[in-house]
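user: can you give me the structure for this one chain? tokens are fine.
assistant: on it. calling the predictor now.
[tool input]
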Amino acid sequence: MLLLLALFAEFFINSKALVVRYQGEWFFPVVSDVRPGTDFGLGYPSEANYRELQQRFQAEEDGNFVIMPLIPWNPYEQDFIEGEFPPYPPSIASEHYLVPM
């Protein structure tokens, strides 16, 4: 069971989107090459920030959407809270469920 979970870990914990629908096209970033922000109208050539893209699509409400993994964070990402010092308690609001940072 643990081996299967390890094989599919990127589908549960990752900063890349599972599915992106943008202007009628479907993208699967978690299993494909790096997608630049310009592919989704973000205006920068580096890899798209899918959490930012998800918020943008939700605000626009024009049929585009992003489906993120259960825990939408890369293990190497820093997510410091301004004015507070780590370690932080786990938080459902910030989608950090398991361990403090």
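assistant: here you go. The CA atoms of residues 21 and 65 lie 5 Å apart. Residues 11-74+83-101 form one domain.
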